[in-house]
Design brief:
Elements (H helix, E strand, L loop, with lengths): L5 E5 L6 H9 L17 E7 L2 E7 L11 H15 L2 E7 L6 H11 L5 E6 L7 H6 L9 E2 L8 H28 L7 E7 L5 H9 L17 E7 L2 E7 L12 H16 L2 E7 L6 H12 L3 E7 L7 H15 L8 E3 L8 H15 L5 H14 L11 E9 L4 E7 L6 H14 L8 E5 L10
Parallel strand pairs: 1-3, 1-4, 4-5, 5-6, 7-9, 7-10, 10-11, 11-12, 14-15
Antiparallel strand pairs: 2-3, 8-9, 13-14
Helix pairs in contact: 11-12
Length: 456
């Protein structure tokens, strides 16, 4: 079972942290008193809020003291709780306004990787309004006005917590799934060779293996089944999969050829990296783009290999023309690696295998939520989302939920109206700036649920 998401309550002494802890836990666990500094150790409990469940930490009041003193040691405990939490709930006293120590806590929280929700406690009545307005200057987003003592503002607190709790649940599920099926560093590279008939796929496999393992010849369509061969390249394990040639669906009349095409696509499903082999003497054709598109739709990493390079004419213009046509024809992924090879002579095959291992590494890459959201905040600041109909789309944060292929969930409000062009802007930024290269990246949009909406 996945662990519960964790929430750490943090703030200077005597702002109502323990009162809020007791309300969310539903019991009077933490001691509450008007004197500051009652809480000294981290206290834990299971919090509940309108159906949300989470592990809650009540921390000691944050004080700017020597680490060797008692207040200083309490601060170290608080910092540890925030590092371990999925989200920090920074509570300040709205009636007292923002103090220098609140500003110090905010500076420290802005430098941490943990997402922060700013909670303006004791916000009942007009006396709290000046303090709420002051808190915008802390740089932690919009404050959530609450009253921990009277239970006011819990619906707004729910809405603020929900995307963070959902993100943590997704990450926990993804981590569980990945730990069960994660590839070991020395696991064989599952490499499928696909392409049109007679592109030289079986010749390529034979050249890599150094033996005539597969039947080859001038006739198209000799290979009918997907053939898997276990092999080693420079001490690294590879599972090579040769497949039947793929023609246009309209030209496939023979029942056996239809079965072969289905078998090829199953081989793609089980591969990690797919090499689309092109015949350089024929260039790039529409069927090649359809095959490449299908590979990327299945979430597999793709390499393009121009075969028969040793007999190709006008090599420079051919190479540049293929790259340009791929960038134009494969709108979901630009910059797919293109390599010139010769299955007959062995030219370029070591570079092809090296690129395949590098591509699998990018396809399996995971970035931390902190690193991802630092990039995300900069990307949104540089190019804010549009406001369709004059209503702002608010993007909160993004998290990676799985690898192989890299998949991300973007949390925000009104995300159903986020244009495809802006989604493509984010996906291209993820690839370019976070080390994913030209592998397929998936982005799912998610808006917070409304707990007050009645089911129809």
């Amino acid at each position: 079972m996945s662990r519960l998401p964790t929430v750490a309550i943090v703030g200077r002494p005597n702002v109502g942290k323990s009162t809020l802890f007791n309300r969310l836990v539903g019991k009077r666990i933490a001691l509450v008193d008007d004197r500051p500094g009652v809480t000294r150790d981290r206290r834990e409990g299971e919090g509940q809020l309108l159906g949300l469940s989470f592990r809650l930490f009540d921390t000691a009041g944050f004080e700017d003291e020597d680490p060797q003193s008692l207040p200083g040691r309490m601060r170290v405990q608080t910092e540890a709780a925030v590092r371990q939490a999925d989200v920090a709930l920074f509570v300040f006293d709205a009636r007292a306004g923002v103090t220098p120590l609140d500003e110090e806590v905010a500076r420290w929280l802005r430098g941490s990787d943990t997402p922060v929700i700013l909670a303006a406690n004791k916000a009942e009545g007009r006396a709290a309004e000046p303090g709420i307005f002051e808190s915008f200057a802390l740089g932690l987003g919009d404050p959530v006005p609450i009253s921990a003592e009277h239970g006011e503002g819990m619906g707004d607190l729910f809405q603020a917590l929900l995307p963070h709790i959902e993100r943590a649940e997704l990450e926990a599920e993804a981590a569980e799934a990945e730990s069960e099926e994660e590839a070991q560093p020395d696991a064989p590279l599952k490499l499928a060779i696909v392409g049109r008939p007679n592109a030289g796929k079986s010749t390529l496999v034979n050249q890599l293996l150094g033996e005539d393992r597969l039947i080859t010849g001038p006739e198209a369509g000799i290979t009918r089944d997907s053939i898997a061969v276990d092999w080693e390249w420079q001490g690294r394990k590879v599972r090579l999969i040769d497949t039947a040639g793929l023609r246009k669906r309209a030209k496939i009349e023979d029942k056996l050829e239809k079965l072969s095409a289905s078998d090829t696509m199953r081989a793609v499903d089980f591969a990690e990296v797919v090499v689309l082999l092109l015949d350089a003497t024929r260039g790039l054709e529409a069927q090649d783009l359809r095959i490449a598109d299908r590979v990327l739709e299945e979430g597999r990493a793709l390499l393009i290999a121009l075969n028969k390079w040793d007999v190709a004419e006008n090599q420079s213009s051919l190479f540049n023309g293929v790259k340009a046509a791929l960038d134009e024809g494969l709108s979901q992924v630009r910059g797919v690696p293109v390599l010139a090879v010769s299955a007959a002579t062995g030219k370029g095959l070591d570079q092809l295998l090296g690129a395949a291992f590098e591509t699998r590494e990018a396809w399996s890459r995971r970035v931390s939520t902190g690193q991802l959201n630092r990039w995300f905040e900069a990307a949104v600041e540089k190019n804010p989302p549009p406001a369709p109909g004059g209503k702002r789309i608010k993007l909160r944060f993004v998290t990676q939920v799985k690898t192989r292929p890299p998949s991300f969930v973007l949390f925000g409000t009104r995300v159903d109206q986020l244009p495809t062009s802006y989604q493509r802007y984010l996906i291209n930024g993820i690839r370019r700036e976070l080390g994913f290269g030209a592998v397929p990246v998936r982005l799912t949009l998610r808006a917070p649920k409304n707990p007050f909406k009645t089911a129809e």
